[in-house]
UniProtKB/TrEMBL annotation:
<dbReference type="InterPro" id="IPR004437">
    <property type="entry name" value="ParB/RepB/Spo0J"/>
</dbReference>
<feature type="compositionally biased region" description="Low complexity">
    <location>
        <begin position="9"/>
        <end position="21"/>
    </location>
</feature>
<dbReference type="InterPro" id="IPR041468">
    <property type="entry name" value="HTH_ParB/Spo0J"/>
</dbReference>
<comment type="similarity">
    <text>Belongs to the ParB family.</text>
</comment>
<keyword id="KW-0159">Chromosome partition</keyword>
<dbReference type="Pfam" id="PF23552">
    <property type="entry name" value="ParB_C"/>
</dbReference>
<feature type="region of interest" description="Disordered">
    <location>
        <begin position="1"/>
        <end position="35"/>
    </location>
</feature>
<dbReference type="Pfam" id="PF02195">
    <property type="entry name" value="ParB_N"/>
</dbReference>
<dbReference type="InterPro" id="IPR003115">
    <property type="entry name" value="ParB_N"/>
</dbReference>
<keyword id="KW-0238">DNA-binding</keyword>
<protein>
    <submittedName>
        <fullName>ParB/RepB/Spo0J family partition protein</fullName>
    </submittedName>
</protein>
<dbReference type="InterPro" id="IPR057240">
    <property type="entry name" value="ParB_dimer_C"/>
</dbReference>
<dbReference type="Pfam" id="PF17762">
    <property type="entry name" value="HTH_ParB"/>
</dbReference>
<dbReference type="InterPro" id="IPR050336">
    <property type="entry name" value="Chromosome_partition/occlusion"/>
</dbReference>
<feature type="compositionally biased region" description="Basic and acidic residues">
    <location>
        <begin position="23"/>
        <end position="35"/>
    </location>
</feature>
<feature type="domain" description="ParB-like N-terminal">
    <location>
        <begin position="46"/>
        <end position="136"/>
    </location>
</feature>
<dbReference type="InterPro" id="IPR036086">
    <property type="entry name" value="ParB/Sulfiredoxin_sf"/>
</dbReference>
Length: 303
């Protein structure tokens, strides 16, 4: 009894890889089927040689931070692979990554020869869809990578826009906000991708139709470290130069109105303005810059 307990403790102490090895060894003693020895079973967690794995040609992530990879590699040396990567089988001795490229690359840095993996059956389109959705749901892509992933799901995976939100677990308005980033000039998209400006800055710039003015505002944001609210004010001033400045004497009420405005602005992807009087009556203004912009807003309202 003591020996059995000690054996279990030793197996647990060696991590998931050791447990998988122990399980594999016991299986091989009972049944040395030649195909089981050559390839991993579909639908199971198996250990796969790193040199048998190809990278995912549909990988939505384009930026892998080397320092973060090295930190993950050090963690893998100590803890092993906590979450298996996901592969599809190409043939008996060859696999292709569906998801988990950071873990795959870090495992190579850590000097591992094998990694635990889920083996899935998937064609090219299914593989692309799984890779994109898995990465989006991990929420560690930058905003432009998310936007491009959504666009690829629409075009390459033939998803309809009304299906996309359900498939990725996001509100339709959120998906639309990301897709609208792709309409921005390349310099602004690059600034979002590199973290120089936030998605809030980008959403404010989207409502500007003149691309030269968008780029002028981008320079101003970078040079003066402007807040999102300041950029929204500049955009509003340029779009509605004759609009009166509305003030609220009640600071607490003003804070609540601003919170509601921000929430509505995020939902509709355009700057919403709420004006109220002392009798708690007022109006909500939803600006639009074109007929297509109006149709987009109406589509969200009807959703």
């Amino acid at each position: 009894m003591a020996d059995n307990k000690q054996g279990k403790r030793n197996a647990l102490g060696r991590g998931l890889g050791a447990l998988l090895n122990d399980s594999t060894d016991k299986t091989e003693v009972k049944d040395r089927h030649p195909l089981r020895e050559r390839s991993a079973a579909v639908g199971s967690i198996s250990e796969v040689q790193l040199d048998q794995i190809e990278v995912n040609p549909y990988q939505p992530r384009t930026d892998f931070n080397q320092e973060a990879l090295e930190e993950l590699a050090e963690s893998i040396k100590v803890q092993g692979i906590i979450q298996p990567i996901t592969l599809r089988r190409l043939n008996n001795n060859s696999y292709q990554l569906i998801s988990g490229e950071r873990r795959f690359q870090a495992s190579k840095l850590a000097g591992l020869k094998k990694v635990p993996a889920y083996i899935r059956t998937a064609d090219d389109q299914q593989m692309l869809e799984m890779a994109l959705i898995e990465n989006i749901q991990r929420e560690d892509l930058n905003a432009m990578e998310v936007a491009l992933s959504y666009q690829r799901l629409l075009t390459d995976c033939k998803l309809k826009q009304e299906e996309l939100g359900d498939r990725v677990g996001k509100k339709r308005s959120t998906v639309n906000n990301y897709l609208r980033l792709l309409k921005l000039p390349p310099d602004i998209q690059a600034a979002v991708r590199d973290g120089k400006i936030s998605m809030g800055h980008a959403r404010a710039l989207i409502s500007v139709e003149d691309s030269s003015f968008q780029l002028e505002l981008l320079k101003k944001i970078l040079n003066e470290d402007l807040s999102v609210r300041k950029v929204e004010a500049l955009v509003k001033q340029a779009s509605f130069p004759d609009a009166p400045v509305e003030k609220s004497e009640n600071k607490e009420e003003n804070k609540e109105i601003i919170k509601v405005q921000d929430k509505l602005s995020s939902h509709f992807g355009t700057k919403i303005k709420i004006a109220s009087n002392d009798n708690n009556k007022g109006e909500i203004k939803i600006p639009f810059g074109s007929v297509s912009e109006l149709n987009r807003i109406l589509e969200i309202i009807d959703a």
